[in-house]
Amino acid sequence: MNIATNILQVIEPDLDILRIDLDNKLEEDFKFGELYPMMWINDMFIAPGGVSSFEINMTGFLPRFSLSLSDDIDQFSSIAMPKKQDLLSVMIKDKKSDFKPIQANFTVDSISTYSGSVELTGVLFIPKFDKQVCISYDGMTTHEVLEQIALDLGLGFATNEDVTNDIQNWIIPFKKYSEFLSKINNYIYKGETLTYYEIFIDIYYNINMVNVSKLFESGLEDEETETYASLNDLSTWDSSMDGDEYEKKEPESISMPLFLTNRQDYIGNNNHFKRYDFDNNTGSTYKSLGINKTQRFYDLDEKMYLNHDLSLDFETDEELNELIVQDDEMDVYIWSGIINDNHHLNYEWVKFQSKILRSFYNRNSLRIELDRANFHLHRYIKIPVQVWTINAFDNDYLSDLEKLQEGDDDQENQNNEPQSNTTSEKDPILNKFISGYYTLKDYKIGWKNGSSQFHQECSFIKPLYVNVVNKIDNPDG
User: Fold this and answer.
1) Which of 176, 179, 330, 376 could make a disulfide contact with 227, Cβ separation 3.0–4.6 Å?
2) Which of 460, 403, 445, 356 is nearest to 63 (CA)?
């Protein structure tokens, strides 16, 4: 796991319970799973030539898949036609041998056919996961409950949290495990430090409990995780691969700290992204949640109404130059009902806290596309992202802002600098408005027919949008 996020494996998944038995498939030709996805439906092998596109979507609580097949010869007609709840088995390997292969079973939940094509979608298969159960976990913390559920279902358990302070009787009253687990993150309480958690199951069958606030604690930026960058990436199909005498070669690679960049020097490597989109929703977040946030509730024991105020430290951090609209009218009160002893003491409070923190930590989002999937990335890894600008106008603009930030008052020297209108003559400049440390919220891995590698779409978040220029007083008004 990643050092910078300190996500530790507590329990390993039980492959026998999960019915994962794909090891015998690893002896197949290395091109299967490495250059294109290796897939079966009910033990029927799906030839890559008939696959239009394939995607594993890890943006929700459970990984999902979508598969588009070309079926002009009706190979899926009659008996061979996939049915609902049939299993799609998938294996994906990286060209680097130290990458842990993806080996997963998905249930086929929907099937559609049209004009010689078959579209299949489904979700990661976990035995008994959607069965209604009535279970009570008495006198346990959420950390202990998640460990026990993982053991019961044969899942692994990974977390960056050592202990939680939320002992109570946790009940699943004739509900599915999926319903319970997808909501318990709102009630996890650690202590007085403001934190919120995300719970999800990854493609390796681990229940993940991530303390998101902990990812942005100071000091973690000094720790690095090693990755590799391929130096001989296969960007186009090589017909010689089809020959029997073709031998697999380990990609030539170099070790480097894990980071992502759009700088052209890294084109062809697995840490290069070709495009990005950035959104900052600070204004709408404050309008919806308010500047001053107060929880109101009635304490049954004390027989009185009480208020809890929620204040976030980074809202007033002047060193970060965070733009905050201080409006006394932007106060928000949330009614949490009657507090009793059916839950841990902070049950309603942490639900209120989690909602607020989740909005603030997600108010800056960065979406990028990688031509080649980087299998060292996993959800809620913390990673530096470098966004460089090579546009002539943007370069001049960012350069001027840098000089203002540094207090460069030598305007005469600035005016005497040679000007150029061609982008090719501009050196790339780091965009400090967008670059910085992000955490990977979710991602997708995909493959398209004719490609010899997997591609990836990633969505990152960070709580602060840092302006590189301080407020500058204009003496002329």
Assistant:
1) 376
2) 445
Banded pLDDT at 426 (limits 50, 70, 90)? low
In angstroms, the CA 60 to CA 134 distance is 25
Same domain? 275 vs 287 = no
Residues 383 and 442 in one domain: yes
Q: How would residue 23 be classed by pLDDT, with cut points 50, 70 and 90?
A: low
Based on the fold, state whether residues 296 and 161 are members of the same structural domain.
no
**Which residues on adjacent β-strands are paired with residue 335?**
296
Q: Are residues 309 and 420 in the same domain?
A: no
Residue 303's domain comprises 282-360
Contact 460, 385 (CB under 8 A): yes
Q: Give the domain-ending residue among 124, 143, 164.
A: 124
In a domain, 9, yes or no: no
Share of the chain above pLDDT 70, in %: 62
The torsion angles phi and psi of 16, rounded to 5 degrees, stand at -70, -45
Residue appearing with tokens 């733009």 = 323
Q: How far apart are CA 372 and CA 234, in angstroms?
A: 10
Which tens digits make up the pLDDT trace of 103-126? Answer: 999 999 888 877 778 889 999 999
Residue 254's DSSP bridge partners are 229
> For tokens 């690679």, what's the residue?
253
Which of 19-28, 148-157, 256-265, 319-328 holds the top average pLDDT? 148-157
Q: What is the mean pLDDT of the chain?
A: 75
Looking at 329-333, 358-362, 375-379, 431-435, which range is the least confident one?
329-333
CB count, 10 Å around CB of 266?
17
Q: Is residue 385 part of a domain?
A: yes
**Distance separating the N- and C-terminal Cα atoms of the chain:** 54
- Note whether 296 and 395 are same-domain residues: no
